[in-house]
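User: Sequence in, structure out. Go.
Assistant: Echoing your sequence, followed by the structure tokens.
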Amino acid sequence: MTAEVGKRYRHYKNKKEYVVLALGYFTESEPLLECVVYQAQYDTDDLGEQPVFIRPRAMFEECLVYDGKTVDRFGLID
């Protein structure tokens, strides 16, 4: 799976939806660390309305084993 700006994804564990807002770079690493900026499609009591998160792109796009099955961390909905 490849993260794409404007696309909707569902997190494998919490089943909540997110939209990728941008791809960017963390400039304090060498080489530069590519990151995904994504926004929750839900509100939380502690973080407010549709909080925005940042995660390394490799982590956003990775597969992992959950309940004995290999799954995408974030699965494309669109």
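User: And one key feature?
Assistant: The chain is about 5% helix and 50% strand.
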